[in-house]
């Protein structure tokens, strides 16, 4: 197989862990292997007895779905997030600063075997590999591609480059994710995977113009809003006091949040739960998960009116593909797959009205409200999170139906009852988003491209240098 130059980091992944992840197939060859030092295999401890959730840094948990009785899937589409990656630049620098603090304070740390890792900690997530896809992410997408192609074999094969469409956001981790998905879907057929990789590159659009895959960057009104501050989990000060006493030197709340970030990435990337995660109680990890969800709720959720429109372009793409399949079944796309970001999936989920709580999320939520909330990002936008659309042709019916899956689990659309929704009803429910004028909503002075503006997309593809 000829790989284009996309870095994917090969990580040694420990065998223990709770989040479900597919093992690497023997046929997969990582691109540009890079081994991160992770130390000894983890041991059982209090935090490894629970799933470690952390908002968008959560590991992928797939659901399950059954075919709709007396119906045939005639088109399948998925819009998803890239697989597991290394931290981006900001956290990486914070981890290096913590490394210096721990080295400076090493003599003060008790000689406890459970704390020994703190004395020898070296930041494996260095800035030179910030934001890159890792092997776990490649495995996630490979397995996802294989499962989807197994569920819809007549749509994936025979492969037709004009009808099995792949698109990606303009970043290496998204492009690598699409390539891993294709390798899984087409059983490592190098000619097909190379064709798909080339097609994704040729269709790249600069992020600041890509209304489908990078709506936050492509929307001037959104980009001009002040950034929402990160929400710090409410028990962080108490955790700082407790852990400071445990380690023998003073830690600030900011140090504790960095340690929690390290817990998240050690869990997601390295499958390690017995180091930084072991410093926190299950209640603190749960509180941090809610704080992360609240941060992204304020930035991408139902908190602002503009957020309800950010996903309108990619939703329009999905609907136009459905309309094409109904009108021209012999030539329309059989499958369509886009690989982008959490900031793509969250706006799409909001445009569909999914995971919406009765009350807006608030830092003042009670424990019961936090536990019962619907907006749990681990359920729809973790690493490799995805939203899929099945177009169904059913016996004894002249109308087509649409079923939506999120992370491979069926979801009910608000206003459409349980299960699959008649397409005309679907189109009526989302009439305010389908065919939106994205540039007008965003106050863009330079046209963007996407499903809402197909001509603009056609004129702009191939002009984005890979970022």
Give a short synopsis of this structure.
The chain is an alpha/beta fold and 467 residues long. Helices cover 39% and strands 10% of the residues. The protein has helices spanning 89-105, 116-120, 135-151, 153-156, 172-185, 190-202, 215-218, 220-223, 236-247, 253-270, 282-300, 307-310, 312-327, 342-351, 367-372, 423-429, 438-442, 454-460; strands at 8-9, 71-81, 133-134, 164-168, 335-340, 386-394, 400-406, 409-411, 421-422.
Question: What would you note in describing this structure?
Answer:
The protein is globular and about 75 Å long. The N terminus is likely disordered. Strands 2, 4, 5, 6, 7, 8 and 9 form a seven-stranded mixed sheet that branches. A two-stranded parallel sheet has the order 1-3. It is of the alpha/beta class. Helix 3 crosses helix 5. Strand 7 and strand 8 form a beta hairpin. The chain has a single domain, classed as Rossmann fold (3-Layer(aba) Sandwich).
Report the structural category: alpha/beta
Low-confidence stretches: 1-50
Task: State the CATH architecture.
Answer: 3-Layer(aba) Sandwich
Helix/strand order, N-terminal first:
EEHHEHHEHHHHHHHHHEHHEEEEHHH
Give the amount of beta strand, in percent: 5-15%
Query: Tell me about the biggest sheet?
Result: 7 strands, mixed
Distance between the termini: 23 Å
Query: How many structural domains?
Result: 1
The CATH topology corresponds to: Rossmann fold
How many strand segments? 9
CATH secondary-structure class? Alpha Beta
Q: For the CA atoms, what is the radius of gyration?
A: 22 Å
Separate helix tally: 18
Helix content: 25-40%
- The mean pLDDT is 87
Shape descriptor reads globular
Question: For this structure, what is the CATH homologous superfamily?
Answer: Phosphoglycerate mutase-like
């Amino acid at each position: 197989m000829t790989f284009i130059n996309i870095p994917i980091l090969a990580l040694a992944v420990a065998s223990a862990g709770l989040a479900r992840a597919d093992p690497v197939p023997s046929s997969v060859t990582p691109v540009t292997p890079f081994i991160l030092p992770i130390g000894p295999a983890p041991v059982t401890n209090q935090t490894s007895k629970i799933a470690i959730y952390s908002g968008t840094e959560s590991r992928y948990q797939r659901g399950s779905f059954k075919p709709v009785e007396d119906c045939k899937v005639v088109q399948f589409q998925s819009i998803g997030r890239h697989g597991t990656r290394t931290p981006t630049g900001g956290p990486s620098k914070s981890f290096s600063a913590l490394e210096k603090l721990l080295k400076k304070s090493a003599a003060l740390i008790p000689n406890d075997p459970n704390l020994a890792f703190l004395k020898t900690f070296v930041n494996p997530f260095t800035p030179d590999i910030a934001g890159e896809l890792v092997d776990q992410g490649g495995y996630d997408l490979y397995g996802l591609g294989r499962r989807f192609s197994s569920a819809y074999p007549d749509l994936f094969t025979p492969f037709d480059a004009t009808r099995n469409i792949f698109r990606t956001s303009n970043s290496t981790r998204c492009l690598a994710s699409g390539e891993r998905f294709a390798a899984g879907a087409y059983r490592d057929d190098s000619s097909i995977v190379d064709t798909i990789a080339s097609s994704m590159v040729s269709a790249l659009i600069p992020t600041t113009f890509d209304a489908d895959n990078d709506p936050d960057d492509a929307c001037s009104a959104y980009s001009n809003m002040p950034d929402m501050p990160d929400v710090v989990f409410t028990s962080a000060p108490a955790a700082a006091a407790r852990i400071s006493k445990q380690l023998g030197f003073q830690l600030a709340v900011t140090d504790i949040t960095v340690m929690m970030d390290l817990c998240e990435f050690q869990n997601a990337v390295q499958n390690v739960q017995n180091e930084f995660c072991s410093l926190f109680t299950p209640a603190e990890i749960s509180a941090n998960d809610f704080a992360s969800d609240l941060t992204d709720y304020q930035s991408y959720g139902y908190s602002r009116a503009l957020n309800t429109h950010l996903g309108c372009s990619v939703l329009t793409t999905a609907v136009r593909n459905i309309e094409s399949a109904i009108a021209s079944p012999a030539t329309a796309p059989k499958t369509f797959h886009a690989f982008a970001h959490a900031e793509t999936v969250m706006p799409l989920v909001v445009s569909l009205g999914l995971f919406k709580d009765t009350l807006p999320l608030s830092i003042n939520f009670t424990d019961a409200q936090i536990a019962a909330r619907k907006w749990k990002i681990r359920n729809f936008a973790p690493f490799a999170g995805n939203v899929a659309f099945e177009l169904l042709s059913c016996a004894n019916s002249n109308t087509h139906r649409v079923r939506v899956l999120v992370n491979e689990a069926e979801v009910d659309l608000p206003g459409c009852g349980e299960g699959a929704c008649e397409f005309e009803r679907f189109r009526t429910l989302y009439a305010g988003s389908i065919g939106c004028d994205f540039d007008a909503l965003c106050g863009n002075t330079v046209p963007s491209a996407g499903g809402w503006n197909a001509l603009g997309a056609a004129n702009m593809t191939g002009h984005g240098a890979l970022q």
